[in-house]
Write a structure and sequence with these properties.
By secondary structure, the protein is α+β, with helices and mostly antiparallel strands. It has 5 helices and 6 strands, in the order βββααααβββα. It holds the Pfam family RT_RNaseH_2.
């Protein structure tokens, strides 16, 4: 029904490493392209909500490599809200430096093999939801998000269930 054509002269086969959309994919797994995150090392401290959004946009693209991304980024994310006065403090600076450090030393994530033996670990707190997808004791991906306003009133049981639903939707 759907036909896909490839021009043989434009194809490459059996190459050991591929750079694709800011990632490097090789036999060991997938990791952040070092050339893309070089600018993160020297990123200056944000001085406005717009600069925070720019930084979080870049680091957010690689959030699957950073365990607890949403929890770490929360102090910075709060400063991007319209009704919050911008005030960069120690919490924001610590979050900023930690995100830079974690991104620059991001792990190599395993590539899924087949469709068996997947395990999803979920967790919830009054700050956010988190999940880790694993296969054969290797991390495939991390996922996290902050709680929405109405979710802050949920019971622990409902938050844990929400974390499971969040993990399975990814």
């Amino acid at each position: 029904k759907e036909e896909l054509y490839a021009k043989f002269s434009k194809c490459e086969f059996w190459i050991p490493k591929v750079q694709f959309l800011g990632h490097v994919i090789e036999s060991q797994g997938i990791h952040v392209d070092p050339t893309k995150i070089e600018s993160v090392k020297d990123w200056a401290t944000p001085k406005s909500p717009t600069e925070i959004r720019q930084f979080l946009g870049l680091t957010g693209y690689y959030r699957r490599f950073i365990e607890g991304f949403s929890k770490i980024a929360k102090p910075m994310t709060k400063l991007t809200q319209k009704k919050v006065k911008f005030g960069w403090g120690d919490k924001q600076e610590a979050a900023f430096q930690l995100l830079k450090q974690k991104l620059c030393s991001a792990p190599i994530l395993a590539l899924p093999k087949g469709s068996k033996d997947f395990i999803v670990y979920c967790d919830a707190s009054n700050k956010g939801l988190g999940a880790v997808l694993m296969q054969r004791e290797k991390v495939i991906s991390y996922a996290s998000r902050q709680l929405k306003i109405h979710e802050k009133n949920y019971t622990t049981h409902d938050l844990e269930l929400g974390a499971v639903v969040f993990a399975l939707k990814i």
